[in-house]
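Internal tracking record. Fields below are filled automatically when a chain is submitted to the structure queue. Please do not edit lines marked as system-generated. If the sequence contains nonstandard residues, flag them in the REMARKS field before resubmitting.
Queue: standard
Priority: normal
Entity type: single polypeptide chain
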Amino acid sequence: MNALEMKNVEKSFKQRRGELVRALDSVTLAVGRGEVVGILGPNGSGKRTLVRVISTLVVPDGGSVEVFGVDAIHHPKRVQRSMNRVSVEASFFKKLSAMENLLYGAKLYGVTSGEARPRVKEILENIGFAPKRALEPMEHLSRGMQQKIALARALLTSPVLMLLDEPTTGLDPRSKRDVQAFIRSIREEHDSSILLCTHDMGEAEELCDRVGIMVDGRVLAVEEPEELKRRYARNGCVPTLEEAFMAATGYSVEEASAEEE
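SYSTEM-GENERATED OUTPUT FOLLOWS
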């Protein structure tokens, strides 16, 4: 049984002028137990819709989504308990402290403050977050620090499926390394399965067992990084992952991250 299995998933949205835009076009994707799968794609490719469908925030128009064998479309509450999501657009109670936000998030999953506090301390240490800063209001923290708190909040519930939507966006190089190292440790220690959407080619190559490229709502390929690069080889020359991405999408990494989704 896979941690995640999607088959022929479709999703369209109606624009203001009444036109339909297809965000997901017959997407078929699987994430094995304990596997890290990365999805690369320009903004507007459908990555965010993909994550929202899996996390049951958006209902697809067609196809099937199963999380550990449970139908996520018909039984969203059951699958929500086994997964968590970290998004680049994470929301908080900005007037409350980081610690208060974390304890509140834990309580929503049935974890008491007494149980959550030592876990919060451990997580913050592992991602290089100074404990004193956790007592400050969220509105006083940088975007990078808020992103670390978003990751800590997701990890509090020890999810067996993690959906990471640009988890290191806005982080300085050291913080990015801290978060990436912690993602690896969570995978190794808790056998978590991870779907990672990112623009960072190095991050995808370093953390992922398989990597897929998504364009115009379609997943073109999901393969081991070396296999994916060989797919776009020309004249016997194997490209870098960034060059393979450019060949598949027509975008440079800079253009991919600058476009609005």
